[in-house]
Design a protein that fits this description.
Elements: E1 3-20, E2 25-38, E3 43-47, H1 61-75, H2 83-89, H3 97-111, E4 117-120, E5 122-125, H4 130-139, E6 143-147, H5 152-160, E7 167-171, H6 181-186, E8 194-196, E9 216-218, H7 225-234, E10 239-242, H8 244-247, H9 250-262, E11 266-269, H10 276-286, E12 312-314, E13 317-320, E14 331-332
Parallel strand pairs: 5-6, 6-7, 7-8, 8-9, 9-10, 10-11
Antiparallel strand pairs: 1-2, 1-14, 2-3, 4-13, 12-13
């Protein structure tokens, strides 16, 4: 693979229903895409999972754009004879994991054949509404993730009374304070799979006897391999949410999955309100997860996408085929 050119594109699509989390409310999803072009006129695309601002992670879309251009300028007309050589070129981006992840998504395709597959359907509900409930009843996911609110126990009861069996997860995004402690302790009676990131600091888990805690997962704190190993070694962490954009890409996630299996810690692959391109690779990784991951079918978040047939709901699971990107819908910015 000889790197000849890159193009960068912007895309922004409104959500079907606003995304409401303990940290932010979003009406639309702006994303950045890279198109890597080889000397043989082969085109490979990658999707950026960072956001416009640093509300979720320090690296923003602007940072990713700048670092991608720098990387390309350094490696323009360079030939990568193997996937390992391509990985080596991305080592300089270890401090910019969202950038590395986007470029890795494109580069990975140059050295690996993409396949079709099915994965479990894991819905995330950010703000319970009639629209969300109707969507759940119509699509029947294997797992539902609820974002933490002051009404979380009420929301759990509503989900538990849906006309189908579903595994339940709660995501607190590090937002539980003293006012929410009693609700947090009450979660153990609902037999949830796990709660993601209950507290800002893991030390707060030591306030509780293990028997009164639901299984705990880390997400925001799963930023590097060393940080993950440190957390699972010091605290009772049952599940780790692995996100490619946070760890630096597909290859880094595969490596972390193998490490966590040795520690006997469960793995879930996390999504980022992503479009069809990134969702394919999140789903690809989710084949190796222990629980249903953040995988939604086409049309769940957006009416339109840059990939057609990006996750088709079939018989309770989601079918994925190698993505074809429609650049006509995007704005070229480089």
């Amino acid at each position: 693979m000889k790197l000849s050119a890159i193009h960068l594109y912007a895309y922004n699509e409104p959500f079907q229903s606003p995304i409401i989390t303990p940290k932010v409310c979003m009406e639309s999803r702006k994303s950045l895409f890279v198109e890597v072009i080889t000397d043989e006129a082969l085109h490979y695309f990658g999707e950026c999972n960072a956001f416009e601002t640093n509300w979720y992670a320090e690296e923003t879309i602007t940072d990713v754009q700048q670092q991608t251009i720098k990387w390309f300028q350094q490696y323009k007309d360079v030939t990568f004879e193997s996937f390992t050589e391509a990985q080596h070129s991305l080592n300089q981006l270890n401090d910019y994991p969202a950038t590395r992840s986007m470029i890795m998504m494109a580069v990975y395709q140059a050295f690996h054949k993409l396949t079709t597959f099915n994965v479990d359907y894991g819905a995330t509900i950010s703000g319970l509404s009639e629209y969300n409930l109707t969507q759940l009843i119509n699509t029947r996911p294997q797992r539902v993730k609820l974002k933490w609110t002051s009404d979380i126990l009420k929301h759990i009861e509503i989900i538990k009374h849906l006309p189908f069996e579903v595994d339940l997860v709660v995501d607190a995004n590090e937002s539980i304070d003293e006012k929410g402690i009693n609700q947090f302790k009450a979660l153990v009676q609902y037999d949830i799979l796990y709660i993601e990131e209950p507290f800002k600091h893991l030390e707060q888990l030591q306030r509780f006897q293990p028997t009164v805690l639901p299984p705990v997962a880390i997400d925001e704190k799963a930023v590097t391999q060393s940080a993950i190993i440190d957390a699972i070694s010091k605290y009772k962490i049952d599940v780790v949410i692995l996100k490619p954009f946070r760890l630096g890409g597909i290859d880094k996630v595969f490596e972390m999955i193998n490490i966590l299996k040795n520690y006997k810690v469960k793995v879930v692959i996390g999504g980022m309100y992503e479009y069809g391109l990134s969702r394919y690779f999140t789903a690809m990784l989710a084949q190796y997860a222990d629980y249903p991951s953040d995988i939604t079918p086409e049309g769940f978040y957006f009416k339109r996408d840059i990939v057609e047939n990006a996750g088709i709901l079939k018989g309770g699971s989601i079918y994925f085929e190698p993505p074809t990107v429609n650049t006509v819908r995007m704005e070229r910015i480089y």
